[in-house]
Amino acid sequence: MIDVRGLTKVFGLPDGRARRALDTGADRASAVRAAGGVLAVNDVSFSVEPGELFVIMGLSGSGKSTVIRMINRLVEPTAGTVSYDGVDVGGMSAEQLRELRNKRVSMVFQHFALFPHRTVRENAAYGLKTRGMSKRERLDRADVALEQVGLADRGDAYPSEFSGGMRQRVGLARALATDPDVLIMDEPFSALDPLIRRAMQEQLLQLQQELGKTILFVTHDLNEAMRIGDRIMVMKDGEVIQLGTGPDIIGNPANDYVQDFVSDVDRTRGLTAGSVMQSPWFTATADEEPASVLARMRKARGDGVYVIETDGTILGVATGEQLTLAIRDGASHVRDCVVDDYTAVSDETPIAEFCHLTGGHVVPLAVVDSDKHLIGVVPRAHVLEAIATATEEVPEHA
Ligand SMILES: Nc1ncnc2c1ncn2[C@@H]1O[C@H](COP(=O)(O)OP(=O)(O)O)[C@@H](O)[C@H]1O
Ligand SMILES: [Mg+2]
C-alpha cells in the first residue's frame, strides 16, 4: 500500500548542498552536520501492507514525524521515494497530491485544532468541506464517524464540554469521516492519561477490525507499540534500527538500544504459558468427518483447528484448505488431512521463551501437559496484552 525506499531528509541546507553532503561517502550524519544541516531521516525503507497497523516507535527527535510527513509530501524528501498503491508520490501533480491528502490519506495529531465555536458534528465534518457535498450529506457522514468513535448523540455538544480523550475521538472522527484508505496518526494518544489512553487503543484496534483501514501509527511508547502494532519499526537518530512484530523484537532485540527499550520485559519472567493460556475454544477429534469440522470452523471464524486423538493428545492441525481438499477427495476422517503446523509448549514455559513463536501458525500456540494432552491455547493477542500489562509501570523512555 505504501512503499518507502531510501527516504532521507536534511533540514537547514539548500537541496544541492544537502545532496553533496550526503554523497561524500563518509558518515552521512557528520557530513551533513559539518555543512551546517540536520540529517533528520537517513535512508529509511519499509512498506506497509493494506489493512496493516504499522507502528513507528522511537525517542523524541528520532525522525518519526519527518518520515510520515514525507509520505504525503507535507515535507519534501531530500532523497528517496514514496509510492502509494504503486504510484510515485514524488511524481504526482498538484491536483493528484490534493486528492491524496483530501481523500485517501487522513492525519491525526497529538494536538490538533478543534474549532471552539462550532459543534462537535461540524468539527467532525470539517475534512469534507472540499468534497462538493451538500451540508446535509457532510453532517450525516460526520454523524456516522462520531458513532464509530463512540460519540453517537454527542454531535451537538461544543468542544469545550469535552475531555482530552473525547477531543481526540473527535479528531479521529474527522479523519474517518473522509473515509480514507490510510490513517496516519502522529502520537495521537500521547497527551492522554493512561486509563483513557488504554481505552483509545482498544477502540482503535476495534475500529481497525471493523473498517480494515491501513494505519500508520507513531509513538514513543513501547507498551503502546506492543499493544496495537502488527509490526513495529524502531527508529533512532533518523535511522531504522529494527523492524518486526512485537514478539520478534522482544525475542530478538537487534542491538543494545532496542534491548534497553525492551529490558523491562524481564518483568515478564514470572509469566508462563500456563498463566496466560485459555481453554481451547474449539477442537476436532480425529474420527470426525471433514465437512462437519469445516462447518464448525467457519462458524468460529477460524482458519485452522487442533485435531485431538481419542487419548487426548494432539494429532496435528487441520487447516481450512486441507479440509476443503479432503472433502473434495471424499476423505471420511479428519485424521487423513492433518498437518504438523503448530507449536506446543509446557504450561511452565516463560513467555519470553515463546513469545516470538506466536502468530506464525493458523492455530494459536498449544499448551500441553507431560502426557502431551492439549490443556490450553495462547492466542497472540493474549501474549502481547500480558507483556504490555507487565511492563506498564515502567516510566516512559521519552
Ligand atoms: N522543520 C525543521 N527544521 C529543522 N529541523 C527539524 C525540522 N523538523 C524536525 N527537525 C529536526 O529533525 C529531527 C527529527 O525530528 P522529528 O521528525 O520531529 O522527530 P520525532 O517525530 O521522532 O520526535 C530532530 O532533530 C528535529 O529537531
Ligand atoms: Mg514527532
TrEMBL record:
Superkingdom per UniProt: Bacteria
Organism expressing this protein natively: Haloechinothrix salitolerans
GO molecular function: ATP binding
Transport found in the keyword field: yes
All copies of domain ABC transporter, residue ranges: 26-262
Family: Belongs to the ABC transporter superfamily.
SUPFAM superfamilies: CBS-domain pair, P-loop containing nucleoside triphosphate hydrolases
Keywords carried by this UniProt record: Amino-acid transport, ATP-binding, Nucleotide-binding, Transport
Pfam families tied to this protein: ABC_tran, CBS
PROSITE patterns: ABC_TRANSPORTER_1, ABC_TRANSPORTER_2
Protein name: Glycine betaine/L-proline ABC transporter ATP-binding protein
